[in-house]
Design a protein that fits this description.
Rossmann fold; 8-stranded mixed sheet; alpha/beta; binds nicotinamide-adenine-dinucleotide; N-(1-d-carboxylethyl)-l-norvaline Dehydrogenase, domain 2
Amino acid sequence: MRVAIIGTGYVGLTTGACLAFIGHTVSCLDTDEPKIRALKSGQIPIYEPDLEDLLEDARPNLTFTSSYAEAIPGAEVVFIAVGTPPTPSGAPNLEYLSQAARCIGQHINGDFTVVVNKSTVPIGSGNWVGSLLRESSEHRTDGVIPDFAVASNPEFLREGTALHDSLYPDRIVIGADEQRALEVLYSLYRPIVDQTFQAPTFLPRPESMFAVPLVSTDLASAELIKYAANAFLALKISFVNEIGHLAECVGANISEVARGIGLDSRIGPRFLNAGIGWGGSCFGKDTAALIATAGEYGLHMPIVEAAKIINSRQRDRVVEKLLRELKILKGRTIGLLGLAFKPNTDDLREAPAIEIAQKLIDRGVRVKAHDPIALERFESEHRSMGVHLCTSPLEVADGCDALVLVTEWNDYRDLDWDLVAKKMRNAFVLDGRHALDADKLSRAGIHYVTIS
Ligand SMILES: NC(=O)c1ccc[n+]([C@@H]2O[C@H](COP(=O)([O-])OP(=O)(O)OC[C@H]3O[C@@H](n4cnc5c(N)ncnc54)[C@H](O)[C@@H]3O)[C@@H](O)[C@H]2O)c1
């Protein structure tokens, strides 16, 4: 099938690469022209494991453009995958979505086209995008009468495992109020639903993977599924962090408590890692958007609101723990291990490291930091913060009064902790992710503390 993808960020580029890889003809469009030039010349603007290899394999079916006139006419499916960043009120900024919808309306042709919201958008956005498309196509002078339906296909990929999540998803959700739109999307995803595509050698099909559940719903339900899923994951993390706080008070071990509850198949072990809480571009924004949407209907969402409050409290607890250990923060040097909001990505949006660094800088701390992948992005996006960036964890440790593990990159688990201890002015490590080997660090003479 012929597909256009609007927006070549983490979601759009992954989706485009995967759909081209399974045999569709895909045109990826972005208004960021330098980004498109880079993609055309084989450079990849984001870090995502295996993406370079998949793009290479998919290249015969893939083109990149900044021109709506090039990408849209003739596309049977048009995905909108533009950013929907949060506004101060919590509601997402829909400016990019509205620009994309208007441009699609100006270029769509007379053949039936399904326009799909893949961006995470508030409930009701499907109807709104439909009205924008109609409005912009009404102003056309070329006599074309567009024939389209709007659908929702929320994205559940996790950065760092985005290709795996797209080729071998837990489920695919499609929502539309017109049956023919659902049928088009079913045809598009059939190779993934039936797992009939030839798996890439570098990303083999999991042995237990036979078919992918396809959840086919109305528009509003698909839109709500995305928000409800993210809110649930966010509150699962906040729940374990709340229990973790109590565990600390009563002398219980939160890792063991989490394992003990997670083995209950009704609960499940994932997203039960206590620590400094979630970050990233989705959970904070999507929980805020859910609360804002509920507010429009006069509803409160106390559970989701509490999840947010607890998450922000976890960041304060980092500072509290450092204060308890060091007594005075002013004039201290503290090192952060990890800047990206999670391992295996270079994404710094809502990264806990940024919030923690700012809190420490505000208290007069000299902050040093390392990240295996995100240093360059940090330098270009957050240079003004005044964080001293280091090219190795040992350089961070040098002269530090404390190290905080913020992002649980594998690289940090296997550090030479004896050497780290020797480099530090005060051998104290605050493990914000329960990721390090406590015995190993203690043997190296490090005072090791976790946050839960
Ligand atoms: N990143 C994730 O892990 C993730 C997961 C699930 C859902 N989502 C949702 O998917 C959407 C996209 O997220 P992302 O992380 O890929 O964002 P992103 O910021 O990485 O990419 C968005 C891209 O859209 C482009 N763009 C903006 N306006 C445009 C326009 N009018 N026409 C063409 N291109 C335009 C931007 O230049 C940018 O390259 C968001 O709604 C997000 O909430 C993201």
